[in-house]
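User: My collaborator and I are trying to settle a disagreement about how two of our proteins should look. Neither of us wants to argue from intuition anymore, so we agreed to look at predicted structures for both before our next call. Could you fold the first one, then the second, and keep them clearly separated?

Assistant: That sounds like a sensible way to settle it. I'll keep them separate. The first protein:
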Amino acid sequence: MTTRALLFDSPFLLGFDHTRGLIERAQRAATEGYPPYNVEAREDGGLRITLAVAGFSPDQLEVTVEGEQLTVAGKRGGEPEGQDRAFLHRGIAARGFVRAFVLADGMVVEGATLEHGLLHVDLSRPRPERIVQRIPIRTGG
C-alpha cells in the first residue's frame, strides 16, 4: 500500500475522492512512455506541451479536454500494416496512442499545432478577475 492511499483513507480527510482520483490519473500518465513529450513554460506564463507524433496526420490526431483532463490520441488507420513492404529494421512506432495530462483548475487549452512531426498544445491560465465583495454588517439587537 502506498503512502498516498493511506493519507486519503484517513477518516479526517472526508470528501477528497476527487483529489485522490487526480493523483491516481497523474501516476498512470507518468508511467506511459509513448509518445515522448516535453512540457515547457512560456514567457507569457502559459505552458506548451510538445509531443513527438511523426507519421501522424492531423486527421489521425485528436485533442480533447474533459473536466481537468487533457487527452491527446493518435489513431492509425487506412494504411496497410506492412503487408506489401518488407522492413529490414522497423524503429519508427506505427501504433496508436492515448496520452493524458491532468490540468490544474483554471487551465485553458488555447490551441494545437502540428508542425514537422511535433504536436504543440498551448495552455494558459487566465488571471481571475479581482472582485471585491462588500459584506453588510448586521446588528444583533
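The second protein, kept apart from the first:
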Amino acid sequence: MEPHKIEENDPLEALMLGGVKAGFPSPSEDIREKLDLTKLLVKHGASTFFFRIDGVSMVDAGMDEGDIIIVDRAVDPYDGCKAVCFIDGEYTVKRVQITPGGATLLPCNENNGKYRPIPVGPDDDFLIWGVVTWVVKKA
C-alpha cells in the first residue's frame, strides 16, 4: 500500500458551479466560484496521504472498494475514529475502539461474516498510523 503524499502546492483546483439540489429541481442562480480542493480536504499538508480502498471490510462505514481515503497523521486518534493502522507487519483501515486496556480494530461490514474484530494486545506490534478525514467516492 503506497500512499500519495499531498504537497502544499499540488494543483487541486476546480471550478465549482454552485449547489445542486438532491430533491426536486428548482431554478437557481448561475453561481460560480473557484474551489481549492487542497484547502477543503487537507488541513495538514505535510502529514496527509491518499490511499485507495482495496477490499470490502469497511463498506458500512462508507468506504467501498476503489474509493480514495484521505488520511491525516497529525490528527490525534480517538475512540470510534476510522484509521489506517499497522498491526503485526500489515496495514489495514478499521474503526478503532479505544479502551483503557488497549484497542480493538472493528470491521464495518455486517453482510459478511468473514470480517472479525481484531483485538490489540500488549504483545502486538501496533500503531494507529493516521486518521481518515475524508472519503472520496467513485461514481
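Some points you might bring to the call about the second protein. The two ends are 22 Å apart (CA to CA). The chain has one domain: 4-136.
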